[in-house]
Structures are given as C-alpha cells and as structure tokens.
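Issue: ligand-bound run for acetoacetyl-coenzyme A - logging full I/O for the record.

Environment: standard queue, default settings, no custom constraints.

Inputs:
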Amino acid sequence: MSFNNLIVETRGHVGFVTLNRPDALNALNSELIEELNRALDGFEADKEVGCIVITGSEKAFAAGADIKEMQDKNYIDAYKEDFLGSWDRITRCRKPVIAAVAGYALGGGCELAMMCDMIIAADSAKFGQPEITLGVMPGAGGTQRLTRFVGKSKAMDMCLTGRNMDAEEADRAGLVSRVVPADTLIDVAMKAAEKIASFSLPAVMMTKEAINRSYETTLNEGVRFERRMFHSLFASEDQKEGMSAFVEKRRANFKNK
Ligand code: CAA
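Outputs:
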C-alpha cells in the first residue's frame, strides 16, 4: 500500500501511523483521511496487530481540516458529498487506538484525537477548536465529544472563544490520559500500546466496547452489558490461561482465543 500523507508501519504488534504533511502542519485533507481509513482497515484485518498508535510531528499532531481545500465549497457540495462524513472510520475500529499528541491538535486535529480511545499528550501539546475564528463551527464531533470529555463550561469556552488549551489544562480537564515530556512521547505511547497488545485481544476489545457503551446508554444498562461481556470471557481459553498463570506464578501466554 502506498501513502502520500502518512507513514504507516507495523512495529511488533503495534500498528503505527504518522501523519505526514509537514508543509501544512498535517492539515487533514480528503486524501489524508482516505489513506488513514485504508491504513486502519489494514491494521484491523491484521491478526498480528493488537493496538494502533496515531501521531503527528513535534510541531503538530494536526492543525485541523485543510482550510485551503474547504474554502471554496458551497452548501450543496458539502451536503452532497457528506463532507467530513468519512472521518469517523476511526471510531469504528474494534482494536484500541492511541493518539500520541505533540504540538497543535486544532479543529479537526483535536476532533481526530478525541475519536481515538485515549490521548497521551506531550507537554508541548495544544488543543483547540478555533473554527469560530473562520466563521464556522466544529464539524467532526468537536461540540459533542469535547463537551462529554471536559464538561459544558470548558467546551463552550473553547468552541466560542477559539482559545487553545495547553497540555496541563487538558490533563486537569480529563481530555488526556497523561502528559509526558515531549522527547519521550513516542516511547511512552509505544510502551502503552505494546502492553495493551500483549493482553488477550478479545478481552481488550470487549473492555473497549464496554467503556464506549457508557457514552450511549444508562448506568444500569451499561453495567448489565459489562457483566454479560464479563461472563462471556469465561468461554475463552485466555481466561483459563490468565488465571492459571496467576495461580502458578508465571507469565500468561495469551492466544487471543
Ligand atoms: N489548513 C490548511 N493549511 C494549514 C492549516 C490548515 N488547517 N494550518 C496550517 N496550515 C499551513 C499554513 O497555511 C502554512 O502554509 P504556507 O507555508 O503555504 O503558508 C503552513 O501550514 C504553516 O502554517 P503557519 O505558517 O500558519 O504556522 P504558524 O506556526 O505560524 O501557526 C497555527 C501555526 C497557529 C497552527 C496556524 O497554522 C493556524 O492557525 N492554523 C489553522 C488552525 C485552524 O484554524 N484549524 C481549524 C480548521 S477548520 C476545521 O478543522 C473544521 C473541522 O471541524 C473539521
């Protein structure tokens, strides 16, 4: 597979994507999104891959949707092509996806990071939804996901003033899972991804599915869903292996079965 806007690698059991449009601070154009979706399809189908990492450059994870591609669109074009409609492929990944964010994650870049399962931020990261400054508004989930993650007041502040949030504020607000020194970002993200990929893939996938269900349902229904999935894992070979390994004081050897 060839990619013009991404570097796509498999590092051990981790699918690793680097957004790579350095001249445009990784602005997200249609070709990049189509390539990202293709890379994700490949990792989802690859039995050797247990976790996916998406990162950008030191300066920018992504500075938003490509403004130069958007500026001449009219309403009918945007509606007919369902502009941004294909961006949410990432939310349908069944394997975990980690966003490793350094520098700018603005507009669509922030929205893309929020579509991942967790965000590990470098201390240089800056998050924002500056669409209001362009005469528009977030269009890839910013008003919805940001509000769920950081609450109404801060989401209003970010989306209505267009200001950026630094990594420390993003950590306090619950937008990111951890903040690390910029020069350790890839190392930390890879270690987390390798750890996840070393566990039983069905247990990992069901855990992800259950956490995501909490956004779509009531607490009681969510807890019931979680318990049914928990019960189902007793049908797996990996449950027998994981618990036997604990009792026998050895390392578990999961087979993803
Ligand atoms: N789209 C297209 N090109 C972009 C871009 C974007 N979102 N962001 C940066 N670039 C380009 C610049 O045009 C510039 O290209 P040229 O050298 O050809 O002029 C290059 O990347 C470098 O950018 P700057 O010179 O502006 O770099 P800087 O360090 O001075 O500033 C920045 C960095 C503050 C991030 C600034 O680039 C910026 O404000 N970018 C736009 C951020 C933005 O508004 N994002 C939201 C887009 S709308 C959206 O995302 C909608 C949605 O919901 C999906």
